[in-house]
């Protein structure tokens, strides 16, 4: 995905120039590269929001958690859709580098801050979060507060 974003940005930066036009051959190349990006998104980041939220929320709050995930997903899809053309006019080819940068940020977030849930039963997810190097500070305090109240 990152490679296709950078390549689209590079092709457009090199070809647009002063006359703001791209030859037919480069236009086809841009379409192919954007299609590669869409396919990569569909196989990787697209389902990630649905997959992760279905694995990490306990059964008691899963429906509420999924509702929030759907609402946030729709909100950000709306924001991107409403701002893309304006950003394209101002950033020109730089918009593809901008979104490529976000791919790097998202990858770093998942790599460093999302714990592995493979072969972990849903009932044990609280232990996964409490054992994670970053989230244990946040989840651990909340877990202790709930435990003191006698809820669990």
Report on this model:
- By secondary structure, this protein is an all-alpha fold.
- About 75% of the residues lie in helices and about 0% in strands.
- The protein contains 7 helices and no strands.
- The protein is elongated.
- The termini are far apart.
- About 5% of the residues are buried.
- The model has no long low-confidence stretch (mean pLDDT about 90).
Offer a concise description of the structure.
With 152 residues, the chain is mostly helical. It contains 7 helices and no strands.
The overall pLDDT, averaged over residues, is 89
- The stretches of 5 or more residues where confidence is low (pLDDT under 50) are none
Helix-residue proportion: over 70%
**Proportion of strand residues:** under 5%
Question: In sequence order, what are the helices and strands, one letter per element?
Answer: HHHHHHH
Give the biggest beta sheet. none
Q: Give the class from helix and strand content and strand pairing.
A: mainly alpha
Radius of gyration: 21 Å
The 3D shape can be described as elongated
Q: What count of helical segments does DSSP give?
A: 7
End-to-end Cα distance: 43 Å
Instruction: Give the number of DSSP strands.
Output: 0
